[in-house]
Amino acid sequence: MSLTFDSGEMKVKGTGSDDVGTFTITGIYSTKTQRLGLNKRYRSGTGNPTENLGHNVTIQLYWNPSTNQFEGKWYVQTAKYSGEDRFELKPANQPKSNIAFKV
Length: 103
Hints:
The chain is mainly β. It has one domain. The chain has no helices and 8 strands. An 8-stranded antiparallel β-sheet has the order 1-2-3-4-5-6-7-8, with no helix packed on it. It is globular. About 5% of the residues have low confidence.
C-alpha cells in the first residue's frame, strides 16, 4: 500500500491490494493529535470473491513513538460480516521525499 499526504488540506489518499482484493484509501490526519482516520474501499471483482464484498473498512490510528508506527483498529460492518481487530501502519524504508507505509 502507498499513501500520499496533502499537508495543505490534511488529507490522505492511496491504493493497494491484499488477500481480500484491490482497494483505495481516503482519509484525514492531524499533525497536532498525531492521528489518522482512514476509509479503505475494496473494489468489487478483485481478489477473494468470498471476502471482497466491495465494502468499506474504517481505520482509526494514533502515532506510537515507542514503536515508531501508527497503531489502532480497523472496523467492518456489512450485511454478511461485522468485525474489528488491531491495525499497524509502519513507515517503509523510502527516500524522505516520498512517504510510504506498509501494513
